[in-house]
Amino acid sequence: MSWPVLVFDIETIPDVAGLRVLRGDSPEVSDADIYGAWLEERKAKGQSDFMPLHLQRVVVISAVFRNAEGLRVHSFVDKDGHSEGKVIQTFFNTLEKHAPQLVSWNGGGFDLPVLHYRGLQHGVVADKYWDMGEDDREYKWNNYISRYHMRHLDLMDLLARYQPKNNAPMDAMARLCGFPGKLGMDGSAVYPAYLEGKLDEIRRYCETDVMNTYLLYCRFQKMRGGLLENEYEQEIALVKDTLGNLAPTEAHWDQYLKAWT
Fold first, then answer.
1. What are the backbone angles phi and psi of residue 71, rounded to the nearest 5°?
2. Closest CA to 111 of 163, 191, 181, 56
């Protein structure tokens, strides 16, 4: 197991402003009415009420960053409702600076396509991320874009042997491995929480999700021989120590540690 590693997760809400543009609704129509009309139309057609990826607005990107210096948990948050592009650009700047192994759970199926579409809309620049060997020959054989390369490891996709019918939920796998799993809310509760102004709660939820993913990544590294037993135990101890230091000021980490069996 080599450093640096960046494990990430995003939280999104429906992009009602974008939906307004695509539908051609007038400014007098409220966001609630636009979204409600879209939901009714989808229901009438027997279609999913899940907003397509290009209309998923990013409000939080949370990351666990592990390098030789230690372990950090950090979130990029659109606090004013107008900084989505800055949030996405800052995330990609981190990749540009550190060139880490990127790790996700369903990042290839959701998180990264969302970041692609939203980044395109906001004019985000991410040279190294999109390099597939044109600038750095090393990236021809191991880049962030290819499904079968390890520079981006979609842990869910790999464990399912790239067969979607075999996919397992992150929460279930985390709890089955003895980790806390999801705490406080699930994805369906993010938009209602956002409308209630509970952005900090969304951020905390995203952080616990990304920590679950990091712990599953460590377990995977142990399974594949990337971590020896004693190295794995040391990594788990580091996680607990790191969260213990954060717990006095961030109550969700105290709750997370107490839920850890």
1. -125, 130
2. 56
At 176, list the tokens: 């089955």
User: Quick one: tokens of 24?
Assistant: 């051609």
Cβ–Cβ < 8 Å for 114, 15: no
Spatial separation of the C-alpha atoms in residues 91 and 77, rounded to whole Å: 10
Specify the 3-state DSSP secondary structure of 195: helix
Q: How far apart are CA 170 and CA 216, in angstroms?
A: 9
CA 2 to chain centre: 21
Count: domains in the chain: 1
CATH number of the CATH domain containing 222: 3.30.420.10
Q: Torsions phi, psi of 138, nearest 5?
A: -60, -35
Which domain does 214 fall in, by range?
Answer: 5-259
Distance CA 59, CA 10 (A): 8
The token pair that represents 128 in the structure block: 């190294």
Output the pTM of the full model.
0.96
Q: How confident is the model at residue 79 (pLDDT cuts 50, 70, 90)?
A: very high
Q: What is the pLDDT of residues 105-150, one digit of tens each?
A: 999 999 999 999 999 999 999 999 999 999 999 999 999 999 999 9
180: preceding bond cis by omega (within 30 degrees): no
| Sign of the four-CA dihedral 128, 130, 131, 135 | negative
Cα distance between residue 163 and residue 73, in whole Å? 31
Burial 88-126 (b: 16+ CB within 10 A, else e): bbebbebbeeebbbbbbbbbbebbbebbbbbbeeeebeb
Gap between the Cα atoms of 11 and 15, Å rounded: 12
Residue 251 confidence class, pLDDT cut points 50, 70, 90: very high
